[in-house]
Design goal:
With 171 residues, the protein is α+β, with helices and mostly antiparallel strands. It has two domains: 2-61, Ribosomal protein L9, N-terminal domain (Ribosomal Protein L9, domain 1), CATH 3.40.5; 73-154, Ribosomal protein L9, C-terminal domain (Ribosomal Protein L9, domain 2), CATH 3.10.430. The chain is 42% helix and 28% strand. The chain has five helices and nine strands, in the order ββαβαββαββββαα. Mean pLDDT is 81; it is low at 150-171.
């Protein structure tokens, strides 16, 4: 079935594109969510008229995305996770955790915009892409650190400091 896309669908096309899709995909997903219309002569004419509006809308979306990208670019976030003996994580760092860490820094990003090339399953610094628009991508650094390591170091230092002082008072 030929359809005209009303919204950009990743892997399928952009607004105004005429694409062939399976009948069930069109009827059960694209049409109910108003993502596409059937490619009839009348719909093709109306889409041609709407393309000018879409071009302006796309330009505005791109400008907003570029502003957001400038605030996100270069941000480094730290995520604490439980770690096994060899530096392997129990589980992996998810896009949801990265979005929450960004929000804690005052940067609001939808978790669906965070693209992980591969699952983050080890300690260290990892590059992550945040796709804010189809033409605008920002890169952030995600540092994964073992959970509780800093607390253990602080507790050992605190426990070690009073012990010699206590020994001096007894002597």
């Amino acid at each position: 079935m030929k359809v005209i896309l009303i919204e950009e669908i990743r892997g399928l096309g952009t607004r105004g594109d005429v694409v062939s899709v399976k009948d069930g995909y069109a009827r059960n997903y694209l049409f109910p969510k108003n993502l596409a219309r059937e490619a009839t002569a009348g719909n093709l004419k109306s889409v041609e008229q709407e393309k000018k509006k879409w071009a302006l809308l796309s330009q505005k979306e791109k400008e907003v995305a570029e502003k957001a990208a400038s605030s996100v670019r270069g941000v480094k976030i730290t995520i604490q996770k439980r770690v096994g003996e060899n530096g392997q994580l129990f589980g992996s760092v998810t896009a949801n955790e990265i979005a929450d860490a960004l929000e804690a820094k005052g940067v609001e990003v939808d978790k669906r915009r965070i693209e992980l090339a591969h699952p983050i399953k080890s300690v260290g610094v990892h590059e992550v892409d945040v796709r804010l628009h189809r033409e605008v991508t920002a890169h952030i650094k995600v540092e994964v650190v073992p959970q509780g390591v800093e607390r253990i170091d602080e507790e050992e230092a605190a426990a070690a400091a009073p012990a010699p002082a206590a020994a001096e008072t007894e002597a």
